[in-house]
User: Fold this.
Amino acid sequence: MTKIELDKTFEANRDRYLREWSEFLAFPSVSTDPDHAADCNQCAQWLADHLAALGFAVRLIPTASHPVVLAERPGKPGAPTVLFYGHYDVQPADPLNLWLTPPFNPTLRQDRLYARGAQDNKGQVFAALKAIETLVRANQLDATLKILIEGDEETGQMPILKVLDREKAALKADIVMAADTGTVSSGAPTLTMGLRGIIHLTAVLTGPDHDLHSGVHGGRAPNPALGIARLAASLHDASGRVAVPGFYDGVQEPSQAERALANAEPLDANRYASLTGVQPLGGEQGYSPIDRTAFRPAIDLNGIHSGYGGTGSKTIIPSRAEIKISARLVPGQQPARILEAIISHLQRNVPAGLKLEITEQGIGGPAVRVDLESPAVLLARQVLSELSDQPLAFLWEGASVPILSYLPAIAGGQALLVGFGSEEDNIHAPNESYSLDQFKKGYLYTGLLLGRFESR
Amino acid sequence: MTKIELDKTFEANRDRYLREWSEFLAFPSVSTDPDHAADCNQCAQWLADHLAALGFAVRLIPTASHPVVLAERPGKPGAPTVLFYGHYDVQPADPLNLWLTPPFNPTLRQDRLYARGAQDNKGQVFAALKAIETLVRANQLDATLKILIEGDEETGQMPILKVLDREKAALKADIVMAADTGTVSSGAPTLTMGLRGIIHLTAVLTGPDHDLHSGVHGGRAPNPALGIARLAASLHDASGRVAVPGFYDGVQEPSQAERALANAEPLDANRYASLTGVQPLGGEQGYSPIDRTAFRPAIDLNGIHSGYGGTGSKTIIPSRAEIKISARLVPGQQPARILEAIISHLQRNVPAGLKLEITEQGIGGPAVRVDLESPAVLLARQVLSELSDQPLAFLWEGASVPILSYLPAIAGGQALLVGFGSEEDNIHAPNESYSLDQFKKGYLYTGLLLGRFESR
Assistant:
């Protein structure tokens, strides 16, 4: 279908799309809250019915948590297979008192639909589904289309991994699409070309078996608060480079083309400061602020706690100290090896007299890198160029979407990450919204793109 | 009076002493709790009446907090003037449920009196007062005796400093005695020869104006948690020596005699570990564990807090981090200069992009060092030798008693710090107690000592 035909269909069905999208949003499918387990189930069932009505063979696959929706519609012989990934679960809506209208009562104001999940990820998913519907009804979808929509993206757990493992054959695809990303701040059409991997751990340092008097024992008893500060400080050298031996081993540098595209619009330090309150001065020397989140791994301290934190002074040597560490990884870094390297480094640097325990650790997944020259990306670039006058933006995200670390490899396909989210959508915050304009962009992109995967 | 006469008087009056001491303990003079302000007042009034009955001229001097009791009894011409310091306020009694008998209902069990303040400091003060009573009634007290008993020792505030300043003339003395210390663990008679000074501060490091996503911003935004760890770690070098420039300037080394006496009974590392849960491995290399608290200054971290501290992981770059620092000082270190040196050091080491604020700071006082060869100390050594077969112990305490940093200088006298507290007294804890045996030792020591200050 042409852009004009898709546009015409969108406008003719706009009210219905909005109505159905609102139905989808009305399910409070808050995955982290056990009280909403039934809502998650009903939401998954609603999606399954919706896809079945479009001619998909649909399965609701149970997991240790919420069910996964897996749907398939065979295409024409010789046409590629596309796997579309999304999630139907949403973040909790609290604090409720900050919402202008109730989070599960979708409300349109000035062409933005307000609801929890309006963008992340129900809105972006539903825009794609309506494009698929349009192609199916017009008999213009040659590709075999597989749709995988899970209900545990916001839980930090991945019960879906077991499903992926069992359903490897059913998930086989040439292209793995997701619409869970956003555009650069100018709003230019954006291809996400990379995501960092993530690991995390909690380390506890213990010393005295009770808080000691810092006068009686100061300079004699080893102090876990001082010890944890030393341990945390040992993670980086004075220049900001990670000092954990082996951390940078195998790190893949981006190509010249990737680096140039990533830095096409340099980070405006003042704009950054106005959004965050800080200048972009963290991390390694010798790399641009964009390079540092796009192509460089990082270790951050997410928390450090020991001893007294109230008003005034309390002269103790605390008995215990804790740090929470996470690392963002780039291609070439194996998460399990990096986790091990950090733990070994901590163990080697335990100050005399104190004991270290790793009380919690986890691997989100390795980094994701999308190939600039893959046929799917080239096609998406073509389609996005037709939809906008703005030059395309290429984004190597610092954040992680752990499932996307695994899915393309399991499916054996090329990743293609294009989404239309923006900062003002307030995802994970009160008054989340998604504009009809963004929704339509997602619809047009998906429709044009999927329509081009023809049988040969 | 001789030791035998004092002993006889003690035994003859034992029951009355116990009764009066229990009366003194029954006042819940908890100085930090505004609800107990009236109790503090009544306790001070009771003390004043008690001293007046002994023939002292007594004043109850109001302060910004609880009143100070200042009493004086002129001695014979040519006899020295002795100032006795103590405090009538006590620590809070909670947790109440851990007391076997109510904290303000003094109870005798197996020759120990159980009550809040039984030792600290009401018990030690009252033993001295009963010795003074004995000497007065026997007309055996030649010295001019001044008694200063305050009600804010446990508050961490020093409203008494203004009183000292105004009453400088009235406080003039040759010897300043206090009975707020203890004996070494063997129970041998102990002269406390030093106390460390103390300063403290709270430093806050701010970065982003809200917690940032550590994926999106990791390696780009400066991280206050990492920054505070670096700052805290910068306080010491790798060997445990304080790395703040100027910190050790002017530190006075002990004499050979002092060092030898302090180390007469070396610290038993295993006993230390059984009491504290740690080996004595903190602080500076090259000094014995005893030297490190007796003669060396120290900086400790009393608290460090930033970011997430709950279960599992939360991938944020925290917006704020805080440390609480205290330093213990030795003779030769000026508290105000050390405080300034630490603050300057922190300011010079603020990581790029973060802001440092010192939100709270305080000076307890400088170190106290008692002269081994002062006539008062020589006399006390003589008296203590007569009271015990055990060799005397000399203790340079790591802890601080801020008022004693000022009082000897203001009075213009020599400090003399002898007390009979022991670890099993559980001061500041539930079931505080003081044995009749300890009480009697304090009585005999004070009686013998004060009786020796004759007119010449």
